[in-house]
Amino acid sequence: MPDLSRYWQAVCERDASYDGQFVFAVSSTGVYCRPSCPARRPKASNVSFHGSCEAAERAGFRPCKRCSPHGQSPAQQMDQLVTAACRLLLESSPAPTLAQLSERIGVSASHLVRAFKLRTGLTPKAWLAAQRKARFETLIPAADSVLDAALSAGYSGTRAIYQQPQALSPSQRRQQGRGETLRYTFGQSPLGQVLLVASDKGVCALWLGDSTEALETELHARFAQASLQPDSAGLGSWLQAVLKQIVEPQRAVQLPLDIRGTAFQQQVWRALQSIPCGQTRNYQQLAQKLDSHPRAIARACASNSLALLIPCHRVINAAGGLSGYRWGIERKQALLDREQASKAD
Fold first, then answer.
1. First and final C-alpha spacing in the chain
2. Fewer CB within 10 Å, N or C, the chain?
3. pLDDT over 50 (residue 215)
4. In Å, how far from its chain's centre is CA 137?
């Protein structure tokens, strides 16, 4: 039996993953739409759900001209456009300019950039740079030199690589992170175990978990080639500041951070840091602020390695409910409850 409450939530969130599973009809307009339709949301009392377009039409409704529930959705059309552009960027040498790319795809440059940002969070140029960087990261451990890896990844030399902001130098990454020393310590909090990891630049990881064993296993897997050194004494004051923030959320800790992520991820994480304690934002609001797509925002939140310090727990879904959280929904709810209580005080 269909879960009508979930269907309605999908409509409110314009969740494209439900396209093809059902359509919704609006009695006040006589129109039926796919769940991801960009039109203004109707009143719930005017909405009915149907398993197919044919069922909606038998009930007397006509298809929406904006979301075209019979054919490809705007989202599917955009996916095809971006996929074709990505293929051209990767297969052409030299890579086409934005003007050349948009002409070959058959859309305006502004429309292409907007589609890329919605689907990837990046412009075509930035997306290609990210692909080259990812390929470079894959090649460099086995490469004879940094230059060899750079040329194989599509760079014209090594200058662009060394100009990129990064935690490790290219030569360090060629050695799979050997030479980097990370200190770590554990602490017990009301949310379970806390693991704090620091480089010589600042905190690079702050994780929550059920046991020190599980967190330590993840630590060694994540930083397999780094030199890992327990340092409860040296990191004690930082850890205590974090534990105090959990108990008293209004006292936000200010620690030096070694933030490791792509340019887009760091852009999202800066936006998260601007959300005041006791408040929340949804993925759609952040996407509009950053001219991106809610899914790209969600992926960046899921990649955050600095719990509390980059407060991804303050991001909720459009319906006001909790969505995924890397360290568990229960911890997310507990953090938000504590912040609300602290705000009330």
1. 45
2. N
3. yes
4. 20
CB under 8 A, 24+ apart: contacts of 68-76? 69/23, 69/32, 69/33, 69/34, 69/37, 73/16, 73/19, 73/34, 73/36, 74/36, 74/38, 75/16, 75/19, 75/36, 76/19
Helix (H) or strand (E) holding 6: helix 4-13
Q: Which residue has the higher pLDDT, 170 or 286?
A: 286
SS3 252: coil
Whether residue 254 lies inside any domain: the answer is: no
The H-or-E segment that residue 172 falls in is helix 170-174
pLDDT of residue 60: 95
CB 326, CB 304: distance < 8 Å: yes
Longest Cα–Cα distance in the chain: 72
* Domain range for 39: 4-63
Residue 4 scores a pLDDT above 60: yes
Q: Residues forming the annotated binding site?
A: 33, 37, 64, 67
The C-alpha atoms of residue 167 and residue 170 are separated, in whole angstroms, by 10
Whether residue 127 contacts residue 89, with contact meaning beta carbons closer than 8 Å, is answered with yes
pLDDT tens across 149-160, in order?
666 666 555 555
Our count of domains for the chain comes to: 5
Query: Could you list the active site residues?
Result: 33, 312
Average pLDDT rounded to a whole number, residues 126-155: 67
Is residue 279 located within the same domain as residue 328?
A: yes
Using alpha carbons, select from 254, 203, 259, 211 the residue that is nearest to residue 231.
Answer: 203
Q: How confident is the model at residue 18 (pLDDT cuts 50, 70, 90)?
A: confident
CATH number of the domain that residue 226 is part of: 3.30.160.70
DSSP-derived pairing of the beta strands 192-198 and 62-63:
unpaired
Binding residues for Zn(2+): 33, 37, 64, 67
CA-closest candidate to residue 188, choices 216, 212, 204 = 212
Block residue for tokens 């969070």? 121
Asked whether residue 331 is domain-assigned, the answer is yes
